Amino acid sequence: MKVLALLQARMGSTRLPEKVLMEIEGKSILEHAINRVSASKHVTGLIVVTTIKKQDLAIVKKCAELGVSVFCGSENDVLDRFYQPAKLIKPDHVLRTLCDCPLADPKVIDKIIERHVETKADYTSNTIKVTYPDGIDMEIFTFNALKKAWTEAKLSSEREHVTPYIYKHPELFKLENVENDKDYSSKRWTVDEQNDFDFITKIYTELYSKNNLFGMKEVLELLEKKPEFEEINSKTGRNEGYTKSLKEDNTVKGGKE
Is residue 88 part of a domain? Predict the structure, then answer.
């Protein structure tokens, strides 16, 4: 079974430019994200997917330094940016993950992959019904589901965010959702703004030296002891980028071989 992780990264974030190369504990957010996804027991390959824009050459350079594969594709058609490298590898499954999630938990990743394989789903995530912190989000889908989405998706929001065409069509795809025992959906562990970066830095300062792959359990235990940390970035909403895309939706062409 081949599970290809595609790690989405770009320098041109409007809210926090160049965030992916900002450093925490001596390593870039990009490197932390790569290390965490690579620690999965089931991921068999990883490619960083970025854009052809000049500013994203810095990501290409960093990946070269780290010995990590990188693919440069469309800036706005992120679905195409995912499909093209996957088409070259032809994995059984594609794991979509984001570079701005440096608290991604390998154990959660493995739990989602295992549910996906066990149920023979087309798409599995922990976001259909959200019970995990924002930043522990993960999606896995079959290569065939990705190909169908790439071919059929017409709305700009479906192509900018890769998977909406799949999970919006349960009549076409078998969907699975992984829920946590307790609802932590109000917690924000991703990096979109400076206050998010400040929060993540606090977490790493406390935990990284003890275990560089600390997981969700350790973060929750730390926040019980130091709840004031969560005040740092408590004002930012979840999935603001996708919400903005829905408001600006328009019809575009699907992919063609």
Answer: yes
Rounded CA gap, 139 and 128, in Å? Answer: 10
- Please report whether residue 212 resides in a domain: yes
Domain contains 35: yes
Residue 195 phi/psi, 5° resolution? -65, -30
CATH number, position 139 = 3.90.550.10
Q: Domain tally for the chain?
A: 1
96-108 as b/e, with b when 16 or more CB fall inside 10 Å? Answer: bbbbbbbbbbbeb
Q: For the chain, 257 residues long, give each residue's pLDDT as a single digit of tens.
A: 999 999 999 999 889 999 999 999 999 999 999 999 999 999 999 999 999 999 999 999 999 999 999 999 999 999 999 999 999 999 999 999 999 999 999 999 999 999 999 999 999 999 999 999 999 999 999 999 999 999 999 999 999 999 999 999 999 999 999 999 999 999 999 999 999 999 999 999 999 999 999 999 999 999 999 999 999 998 766 555 544 445 565 676 667 66
* Range(s) of the domain holding residue 241: 3-247
| Integer Cα distance of 209 and 240 in angstroms | 32
**Measuring CA to CA, which residue among 253, 248, 83 is closest to residue 157?**
248
Q: Which amino acid is at 35?
A: N
Residue 114: closest CA among 43, 39, 214: 43
Residue 197 lies in a domain: yes
